[in-house]
């Protein structure tokens, strides 16, 4: 079972990865695509920005509303949470089609995408800190693409961090390929 502290450490590591590995790249590397249907580094980050624009405010509202002195000691999982996490784990090499409005393919993006993502990471770190007093097992976060389904606060936090890890690894693979091709 993962803890909020471990998720915080992962988000901190993701922030450092962006700062050290991606933020200083030039536009040609940031926009490099190995094939027309693949994503560039900026498209990977924009995809995550789109998720953060939805989930960060939903989590903030839920955490504020469901704070208590006797919060659950850890994250427990619903069938939906387990399924969602399994799908986005970086070790799961299977590609998944993203819903259309979350697909940034062929977007006009700039380094503002990186700046926005770093801001979302800072927001997420704050959410993880404030979640320490929340009922993590409260099922109140509507799933972005089908709002009738709800996930628990804790599993949603883990989903967001894990999903980010998956696409950051993808962005780093794109960077590696771009550097080889352009050098």
Give your account of this protein's structure:
It comes from Pontibacter burrus. Residues 20-171 form the DinB-like domain. This is DinB family protein. There is one protein chain. The protein is mainly alpha-helical and 183 residues long. The protein has one domain. It is 58% helix and 7% strand. The chain is built from 6 helices and 2 strands; from the N terminus they run αααααββα. It has helices at 4-22, 27-30, 41-65, 79-88, 112-130, 153-182, and strands at residues 139-143, 146-152. The chain has a two-stranded antiparallel ribbon. α1 packs parallel to α6 (153-182). The termini are far apart.
Brief digest:
This protein has 183 residues and is mainly alpha-helical. It is 58% helix and 7% strand. The mean pLDDT is 92.
Give short descriptive properties of this protein.
single chain, 183 residues, mainly alpha, two-stranded antiparallel sheet, 2 strands
What is the overall number of helices? 6
**SSE order:** HHHHHEEH
Q: In percent terms, what proportion of residues is strand? A: 5-15%
Count of folded domains = 1
Mean pLDDT: 92
- Distance between the ends: 43 Å
Shape: globular
The count of β-strands is 2
The strands making up the biggest β-sheet line up spatially as 1-2
Radius of gyration: 17 Å
The percent range for helix content is 55-70%
Q: Which class do the helix and strand fractions yield?
A: mainly alpha
